[in-house]
Design goal:
The complex is a heterodimer. Chain A is an alpha/beta fold. Chain A has two domains: about 5-70 and about 120-365, TIM Barrel (Alpha-Beta Barrel), CATH 3.20.20; about 75-120, no CATH class. Chain A has helices at about 5-15, 30-35, 50-55, 125-135, 140-150, 165-175, 175-185, 185-210, 225-250, 265-270, 290-295, 315-330, 350-365; strands at about 60-65, 70, 75-80, 85-90, 95-100, 115, 135-140, 155-160, 215-220, 255, 275-280, 300-305, 335-340. In chain A, the strands form four sheets. In chain A, strands 9-10-11-12-13 form a five-stranded parallel sheet. In chain A, strands 3-4-5-6 form a four-stranded antiparallel sheet. Chain A has a two-stranded parallel sheet with strand order 1-8. In chain A, helix 7 crosses helix 8 and helix 12 (about 315-330) runs parallel beside helix 13. The radius of gyration of chain A is 21 Å and the shape is globular. By secondary structure, chain B is α/β, with parallel strands linked by helices. Chain B has two domains: about 5-80, Methyltransferase, Methionine Synthase (B12-binding Domains), Chain A, domain 1, CATH 1.10.1240; about 90-210, Rossmann fold, CATH 3.40.50. Chain B contains ten helices and five strands, in the order H-H-H-H-E-H-E-H-E-H-H-E-H-E-H. Chain B has helices spanning about 5-15, 15-30, 35-55, 60-75, 105-115, 130-140, 150-155, 155-165, 185-190, 200-210; strands at about 90-95, 115-120, 140-145, 175, 195. A five-stranded parallel sheet of chain B has the order 2-1-3-4-5, sandwiched between helices. Classes of the chains: A alpha/beta, B alpha/beta. Chains A and B meet through helix 7 and helix 9 of A and helix 4, helix 7 and helix 9 of B.
């Protein structure tokens, strides 16, 4: 009996035998844009992402954000909705900080995005420290389980669970620019925040460890021109501990590697992370899949491989086919690899190329791949 | 006699406190602002740009160096007249509509200012019409657009078409940059140049204005 897409994805992630190349496609950016503009292809109006991917013949990657609800002790949280913006005020005894996010299918990246982060100046350290000391995460995965049921055996639901503690500070508290200025100007205060953030992230890991999530995300959104200087000191040791812990609970781990990875490739191997998802090779980055495979061997399972730009009209159908066929040659014999996009299909991407990718995988993806 | 190597090193080290201190020291010592900029700040930036292009420096070092240059320029600006330091060219720069990433743009803007360009930074999430209006208002030599995600880079095409529609395209060079931007894309949309990194953007701009 043939394996299901879900079984293939999990087997590839575990570096176990697989009958065919698994496919786990992600199209939420394309879907959100067209749903919001009422421009979904006629056939797909009213359809869900999983059903569209099934119709295209592709395995499914669906994403879910957190499997917990966040509470803050001794803090008043006030939310102001001014669509498309949501401003959250955190009123603590040590001061008030605010965060602003945007989501609309009408503009922007078509997924929720921070436009203003809580840390604006060193005056905000006391309030931020208070928030981190008083964060309580309460497990909640009913919504996640609903998505799992929606996807069934046709793919996997990945949880965008957690960043490493320093990435949380860089990405969700300060922003990269402010972070590096603060690390230079007030290193001991940044290090203190780092220690406090570890406590919050450990709460996340403990919840993930007890949850039904198979391959929790432990970090992502790196770019080697930003992260290389801090990766060895703040990321590698953290991941080694996090991965060891999650492995002890029977979980695999993944990182969302949608940026330039060239100078991070050697250090990534030291982390022990099992799956590198959202792999976005050249021409969107400076590394080919062949180079990545050569660097990592089969120590890391890779998910992705077809860069988002290849789905766009600037590339012809012939160029798309050539790229995918060459990718198959680069990954042959094809083990420990899950075919997908790096990392989404943009609003002007051709949805039929998702089907074409699946069709080529079906035709040439019996393992071991021999082309 | 002022020791430029200390100011150069302050820029390379990203030490904004030292760069301000040394800029003030040089001014008090009678060094002309244009010499402080040229032999100190710009010399430091060239080293930083080269180190970035060769992979020895990363964005954090560029950010700190850009800050060191910007803070020193704040000290020097009141002492600089247009006649003393003619600008190399005028640049309008912004992150495209729907995109809020700006680290690369900010670094490029700071370095271009330090290199002698007059820069109008429009900010982030800039609608197509605003780019066109800015070109009409500032009459730049170069329009620079940044995008960090594939979902927003298509608006660069819209801007170029809008410039054509407004009969402005032939009057301005268009350069683009950002992670998803490739040479293939640049040729596809008809832009004039592509900066693979912040360091190369300055060389590109100099080439485009013929200096």
């Amino acid at each position: 009996m043939a394996m299901t897409q879900k079984q293939r994805i999990l087997a590839a992630a575990r570096k176990q035998p697989v009958d065919r190349l698994p496919v786990g496609a992600r199209i939420d950016v394309w879907y959100n844009y067209h749903s919001g503009h009422d421009t979904l292809p006629e056939k797909y109006r009213g359809w869900s992402i999983p059903d569209i991917l099934r119709d295209q013949g592709a395995g499914i990657q669906l994403r879910h954000r957190a499997i917990w609800e966040t509470e803050y002790r001794d803090t008043e949280v006030v939310i102001h909705e001014d669509p498309p913006y949501t401003t959250t005020e955190y009123r603590t005894p040590k001061g008030t900080v605010t965060m602003k996010t945007m989501f609309t299918p009408q503009e922007g990246p078509w997924i929720p995005y921070e436009v203003e982060l809580p840390f604006k100046s060193p005056d905000d350290y006391p309030a931020i420290e208070h928030l981190l000391e008083n964060t309580v995460l309460v497990p909640y995965w009913d919504d996640y389980l609903r998505k799992v049921e929606m996807v069934g055996e046709d793919g996997l639901v990945l949880v965008t669970a957690s960043y490493s503690p320093m990435q949380e500070i860089m990405r969700t508290i300060m922003g990269y620019e402010r972070f590096f200025f603060e690390l230079y100007d007030h290193p001991s205060q940044v290090e203190h925040l780092y220690e406090l953030m570890k406590g919050v992230v450990w709460q996340k890991l403990n919840i993930l460890a007890e949850s039904p999530v198979e391959i929790p995300e432990v970090c992502g959104n790196w770019s080697d021109d930003i992260h290389t200087p801090v990766f060895r000191k703040y990321f590698v040791p953290w991941f080694q501990k996090a991965v060891e812990f999650l492995h002890s609970k029977g979980k695999l781990t993944h990182a969302h590697i949608d940026g330039e990875m060239k100078r991070l490739i050697p250090m990534f191997l030291e982390t022990g992370i099992d799956v590198a998802e959202a792999w976005s090779p050249a021409p969107m980055t400076f590394v080919t899949t062949a180079e990545l495979r050569k660097s990592w061997g089969d120590k890391v399972a890779i998910w992705g491989g077809v860069p988002a730009v290849l789905f766009e009209p600037q590339y012809s159908d012939e160029e798309f086919d050539d790229y995918v066929m060459n990718l198959f040659r680069e990954i042959a014999p094809g083990y420990s690899f899950i075919l997908g996009m790096g990392d989404n299909v943009a609003f002007d991407g051709k949805i039929e190329r998702v089907g074409r990718m699946a069709e080529l995988a079906d035709k040439y993806g019996r393992l071991p791949i021999e082309i | 006699m002022f020791n430029y190597s200390t100011l150069i090193q302050a820029v390379v080290d990203g030490n904004h406190i030292k760069s301000v201190e040394l800029a003030n020291e040089a001014l008090k010592g009678g060094v002309s602002p244009q010499d402080i900029v040229g032999s100190g700040l710009q010399a430091g930036m060239r080293i930083v740009g080269d180190k970035f292009s060769t992979g020895n420096f990363f964005v954090p070092e560029m950010l700190l160096a850009a800050r060191a240059v910007s803070r020193a320029m704040e000290v020097l600006q009141p002492h600089i007249s247009a006649a003393d330091m003619p600008i190399l060219g005028r640049v309008v720069i912004g992150t495209v509509f729907g995109d809020i990433h700006d680290i690369g743009k900010n670094i490029v803007a700071a370095f271009l200012r330090g290199a002698g360009f007059e820069v109008f930074d429009l900010g982030i999430n800039i609608p197509t019409a605003s780019f066109v209006e800015a070109v009409k208002e500032h009459n730049p030599d170069i329009l620079g657009m940044s995008a960090l995600i594939t979902t927003t880079m298509h608006t660069m095409t819209d801007v170029i078409k809008a410039l054509e529609g407004a009969e402005l395209r032939s009057k301005v060079k268009v350069i683009v940059g950002g992670a998803p931007v490739t040479q293939h894309f640049v040729e596809h949309i008809g832009a004039d140049g592509y900066g693979a990194d912040g360091g190369s953007a300055i060389r590109l701009c100099r080439n485009l204005v013929g200096k």
